[in-house]
Design goal:
3 helices, alpha/beta, 4-stranded parallel beta sheet, globular, single chain, Alpha/beta knot
Length: 96
């Protein structure tokens, strides 16, 4: 499902209270490779704005930060492309 909300930080806390793991896409020292990410429970995925990424409060509320490994000089993808890559990869790792 896709949701658009006014106060994302509050919604992420509500999801975590319901034992839903929150993973955000970010390229920083806390990030792990998408290829190493092993979601094992209900998961909420937070995608950052193109160029700007996730806001500080959103980053702080993520249980996991994941990054798409890139080749060459490219450091980021269009958010719709990145979403497709992440969803495809995560779906492939979850039981049918």
């Amino acid at each position: 499902a896709y949701f658009e909300v006014g106060n994302l930080a509050r919604v992420l806390e509500m999801l975590k209270d319901r034992r839903i793991r929150v993973a955000g896409t970010a390229l920083n020292e806390r990030s792990q490779s998408l290829f190493d990410f092993q979601p094992d429970a209900a998961l909420a995925l937070v995608m950052g704005a193109e160029g700007e990424g996730l806001r500080r409060l959103t980053l702080e509320r993520c249980d996991d930060l994941i990054a798409i490994p890139m080749a060459g000089d490219v450091q980021s993808l269009n958010v719709s492309v990145a979403t497709g890559v992440v969803l495809f990869h995560i779906r492939g790792r979850r039981p049918a």
